[in-house]
Amino acid sequence: MSQDMKTFSPEELATFDGKDGRAAYVVYKGRVIDVSGSALWRSGRHMNRHSAGTDQSGELARAPHGEDVLERYPQAGVLAPTLCAVPDRSEERELPWLLRKNPLLRRHPHPMAVHFPIAFATGAAAFMLLYLYTGLEVFGYSVYGSMFLGAVFTPLAVFTGLVTWRYNYGQRLIRPVRIKLLLSPILWLGFLLGTGWWLIDPEALAEPLAYAVLVFAMLPVMSVIGWFGATLSFPAHG
Q1: Where are the domains of the chain?
Q2: Which of 72, 103, 151, 176 is the residue whose CA sits 20 to 30 A from 192?
Q3: What is the pLDDT of residue 149?
Q4: How confident is the model over 153-174, as a mean pLDDT?
Q5: What is the mean pLDDT of residues 135-139?
Q6: Domain 7-92: CATH class, spelled out
Q7: CA–CA separation, 29 vs 70, rounded Å?
Q8: Is the four-CA dihedral 126, 130, 132, 138 of positive or negative sign?
Q9: Which residues partner with 31 through β-bridges?
Q10: Which class for 199: exposed (0-12), middle (13-18), buried (19 or more C-beta within 10 A)?
Q11: What is the pLDDT of residues 54-89, one digit of tens each?
Q12: Which of 67, 69, 68, 87 is nearest to 79 (CA)?
C-alpha cells in the first residue's frame, strides 16, 4: 500500500455519501473503496438498505457475492486505524417490522420462488423431448403437469420479485429489472396457454408439433429472465 494513501476519519467518510453528485465511498476491512462508478450505488444507496459513507464490512459478509466485487473499483484510502466507523442502520427503520425482524425474508423468498418457473419451464421442454422420442403417455402427462405447475407458481415468483424490487432496490428501473418486468408476464402467459390448451383439448399432444413449439419457445424467455435475475445477486459489472 502506498505511503501516500489518504486516511479518512468516520466523519470525513460520511461526507462521501453519493448524494447530490458527491462521490460514494464505502469501507471494507479498513479500506475505503470508491464505488461511485457502480450503477448499483447510484444516489448513495445499494439495494435500498446499504448507505455510502459507512463501514460495510459486516454487511458484505452476508451479501450473496464475495469481496472480489470490490476489486473492480479504486481504493480511495484507508479508515483511520484508531477509529471505528459506525455502520449506518437508519435504512433499517424504513423497512416494515416483519422484514426488520426477519432478515431471511429480505434476502431469500424471491431467489427461492423463482426456481419454480425455471424448473417447470425446463422440465416441460425435457419431458416434451422424451415424449417426442418415445411416444410414452407418461411423458406427455409430465409436460401437461409442468405447464400447470408453472402457471400456479409463476405468480408467486413475480410477487416476491416485486417485493424485493421495492424494498431492496427502491423500485429503480435498472436494466435487469426492466427485462424481468417485460418477460415474466410472457413466461406466465406461456404456462397459461399450455394449461388452457390441455384443459380444452386433453388430446393436445396427439398432434404434438404445435404444442411443442409453445413449450420450446418458453425456454429462451425463461433463460433471459434467469440470466438477468442472476446479475442482481452476482453482478457481472457495475
Answers
A1: 7-92, 103-233
A2: 176
A3: 96
A4: 83
A5: 94
A6: alpha beta
A7: 11
A8: negative
A9: 28, 78
A10: exposed
A11: 877 766 655 656 667 777 888 888 887 654 445 555
A12: 87
Residue in this structure with the C-alpha cell 448513495, named with its chain if needed: 44
What is the Cα–Cα distance from 82 to 71, expressed in whole angstroms? 25
Q: Measure the CA–CA gap between 40 and 156, rounded to whole angstroms.
A: 25
| Stronger pLDDT, 3 or 47, i.e. the higher one | 47
How far is the C-alpha of 28 from the C-alpha of 85, rounded, in Å? Answer: 11
Residues 51 and 17: beta-carbon distance below 8 Å: yes
On whether the CB atoms of residues 79 and 28 are closer than 8 A, the answer is no
Share of the chain above pLDDT 70, in %: 76
Q: Which residues pair with 99 in a beta bridge?
A: none
| Whether the predicted pLDDT of 98 surpasses 80 | no
For residue 46, list its beta bridge partners. Answer: 50
Q: How confident is the model at residue 2 (pLDDT cuts 50, 70, 90)?
A: very low
For 136-143, the CB contacts below 8 A with 24+ separation are 140/205, 140/208, 143/194, 143/205, 143/211, 143/215
Cβ atoms of 8 and 35 within 8 Å: the answer is: no
* Residue 176 per-residue DSSP state: H
Q: Which three cell numbers stand for residue 110?
A: 424471491
In a 3-state reduction of DSSP, which class is residue 46?
A: strand
Distance CA 184, CA 118 (A): 11
CB 163, CB 109: distance < 8 Å: yes
For residue 131, what pLDDT band results from cuts at 50, 70 and 90? very high
Q: Cα separation of 229 and 78, whole Å?
A: 33
pLDDT average, residue stretch 150-160:
94
